[in-house]
Design a protein that fits this description.
Strands 2-1-3 form a three-stranded mixed sheet. The chain is mainly alpha-helical. A hairpin with a 3-residue loop joins β1 and β2. It starts with 31 loop residues before the first helix and ends with a helix.
Length: 341
């Protein structure tokens, strides 16, 4: 009788893959500390109001007072000043101040309109209305509310304020880098409008920058007077345009000079008319029909004139005035950390 063949163990048996199984799963009861952590959720430090209310009073001219009852936490998270004030331990504060009976009186500089613009938030009002943005600008700067202040500053240029007022705001808020964006439109407006058109209040808004603006206007006027005396050079004759031979081109030059002194010079030195802008000068030349000026000479001259965007030296004068005012106001540069965000 044949002997039974011994069963060879699987080559994988020693690895527990065949013939061996892990012990049955046994659930383990969680520890007491885990249960406690699950039953006690943590509070969000950013969105957990204490529920403590405070009452402010603001004057509404001429003889009325408005009371405001608001959450302290909502104020502290938006304003550094209010965060410092209400961060004082309760034991050192008056128990009755900040109530309806004894409200916290806001200073006269904080009107009801300004305080309400701060409480409402900048997403709730029309940012095209200048009063809304200017109120938010003043109150957020006073209370050091950085978020509201940054928003208000970004909207100032779009309000198209008078140039003196814009420059006055730049002086008042000169500690903030965003004010740099206000200087160019303010200077452009002041250089394009006669100073006599500004009232006393607007002139006071120009403040220390007045000499810079006055000197820049003088240099621009000098550039206009030079162009009034020395006309813009007519384009030289081009051999590619045979319709204007040498014997005819001299008449082009005479026609051009006659037109310039009879029309452009009068406009540039006129004592009562507003100064002729460079774009106005180009339009005047373009629409004029010359008697003895060949069309090719005129078109080439117009191309040269249109390649400039202002009178000679005026762009340099403008940028120098902007740079001088930025330096005068000592406006800081945007910090590198903000630029990298």
């Amino acid at each position: 009788m044949d002997e039974p063949v011994p069963v060879q163990p699987s080559p994988f048996a020693d690895r527990g893959l065949i013939g061996t199984f892990p012990p049955p799963y046994q659930s383990q009861a969680p520890s007491t500390s885990i249960i406690q952590n699950q039953l006690q959720p943590s509070k969000s430090p950013q969105f957990w109001d204490s529920g403590i209310m405070v009452v402010f009073s603001a004057e509404l001219p001429p003889h009325h007072t408005i009371l405001y009852r608001v959450l302290i936490d909502s104020l502290r998270c938006r304003s550094k000043v209010l965060d410092d004030i209400f961060g004082i331990p309760p034991s050192t504060q008056s128990q009755t101040q900040g109530t309806e009976v004894n409200p916290i009186a806001l200073p006269a500089s904080i009107t009801t309109e300004k305080f309400e613009s701060f409480l409402i938030g900048w997403n709730e009002f029309d940012d095209k209305v200048a009063a809304n943005i200017l109120n938010l600008l003043d109150i957020s700067a006073l209370l050091e509310a950085d978020g509201a202040l940054s928003y208000a500053m970004s909207k100032v240029v779009g309000l198209n304020l008078p140039a003196p007022q814009l420059l006055g705001l730049a002086w008042r808020h000169r500690a903030h880098p965003q004010v740099r964006d206000w200087i160019e439109p303010a200077v452009m407006g002041l250089l394009s409008t006669p100073l006599q058109c500004h009232n006393v209040e607007q002139e006071s808004s120009i403040g220390l920058a007045y000499p810079i603006i006055a000197k820049a206007r003088e240099r621009i006027q000098e550039a206009r007077l030079v162009l009034a005396a020395i006309p813009f050079q007519l384009a030289p004759r081009d051999i590619l345009f045979p319709e204007c031979p040498d014997e005819l081109h001299q008449y082009c030059e005479k026609s051009w000079l006659f037109f310039w002194y009879q029309n452009i010079t009068v406009e540039l030195i006129h004592p009562t008319k507003p100064p002729l802008s460079y774009s106005g000068l180009v339009q005047l030349v373009e629409k004029t029909k010359f008697e003895n000026l060949q069309e090719g000479c005129k078109s080439r001259t117009m191309e040269r004139m249109k390649s400039y965007h202002d009178y000679p030296t005026v762009p340099d004068v403008f940028h120098a005035a902007v740079s001088d005012i930025v330096q005068l106001f000592n406006i800081p540069h945007e910090s590198k950390c903000l630029l990298s965000i």
